[in-house]
Amino acid sequence: MSLPTVRGARGDCPIHVGWGALARLGAVVRESVPGCRRVMLVVDAGVQANWAGPARASLVSAGVAVAESVMQATEEAKAMPAVERLWQAMLAAGLQRSDVVLALGGGIVGDTAGFAAATFLRGVHLVMAPTTLLAMVDASIGGKTGVNLPLPGGGLGKNMAGVFHQPAAVVSDPQALTTLDPRDFRCGLAECVKHALLADPELLVWIERNAAALMAREREPMEHLVIRSSRIKAEVVSRDEFERGERAHLNLGHTFGHALESLLHRDLRHGEAVSLGLVAAVEASRAAGWWPQADPAALSRTLEALGLPVRVPGSVHRVDLIRAMGFDKKAEGGRQRLVLLKGPGAPGVLPDPDPRVVEAAWAAVGA
Ligand SMILES: NC(=O)c1ccc[n+]([C@@H]2O[C@H](COP(=O)([O-])OP(=O)(O)OC[C@H]3O[C@@H](n4cnc5c(N)ncnc54)[C@H](O)[C@@H]3O)[C@@H](O)[C@H]2O)c1
Prior knowledge:
The chain is an alpha/beta fold and 367 residues long. It is built from 14 helices and eleven strands. It has two domains: 5-178, Rossmann fold; 181-367, Dehydroquinate synthase-like - alpha domain (Dehydroquinate synthase-like, alpha domain, Up-down Bundle), CATH 1.20.1090.
């Protein structure tokens, strides 16, 4: 079977997936960027001990010079000072336009290193070696790079500065997920369920059947999941690289999820909010008459088997959630939109949803 591939305006980005694939990193860099002589390896501090060694060894044996920079993966560190430090490291290493920045880590490191690569010398090549499940199936695919900005009134403006910069290749090694914190791992599973709902109903059934093996992070099911889920994102991005239309479907469940995140801040991870948001979106699809046979209870059972939450904590109330969505105000210029499903694998955008649809959605997750 062919590799999942993003077909971008400036070339293709193949996604190599395999247990132990970090050992092939050097060969992939050579093949994807033939003129590369130096690699700036940007390492997530969380993977330095276990996975930087194999990555570095593979690059060295492919005959490229390796400079290394380690980055803490926190939302606070995903900011301009980190980008400036990377630029300085690239200058010190003598990186040329024909060379490569290689991000080894989760989405935070990928987004930051990607932005540094996109802007250094007006753009050097980027190769992604994602090490979280979310980064493998989502963040490293599609070329969105960027950092957070401090907001004038305090707080963080997420991904407020950034640019599209397609990687030359992605190398996903599911073996690296064996050291990932269980909660981070489950958050990635929520994005895989989202992809399956959006585009691959058979994958949803497969996930349900293989939940236990996935939770145990077994080799074959993990490879299978990462390949199929990556393919879904790659296909959507290939059809709409710069998010002018269809790419917005990837926000399924996110309008509900963001409302939860804004109220529950640090208690709820993004992937957990997505889990709740997906159940809400499936119920909203039913309530809107788009997908009359939709079964949010069945989806909840699948998500629960993956250790993901499907009930909103009792401290959170529906009115506050609707307010956090901005749905308490009258729609301004039709700006209120929900990504819903017309059936399994058939997303669409519902403008100005009826308040009863939104209320039913929240009720489905106990709010
Ligand atoms: N560019 C995009 O299209 C896109 C899409 C979705 C999310 N994102 C961004 O991705 C970020 C979230 O990324 P994430 O979920 O990958 O989490 P993350 O980057 O925050 O990493 C989570 C934690 O896991 C650690 N870690 C990473 N890999 C590990 C491994 N194999 N073993 C042990 N520990 C490991 C990290 O050090 C960190 O502590 C957010 O900043 C979000 O905005 C970007």
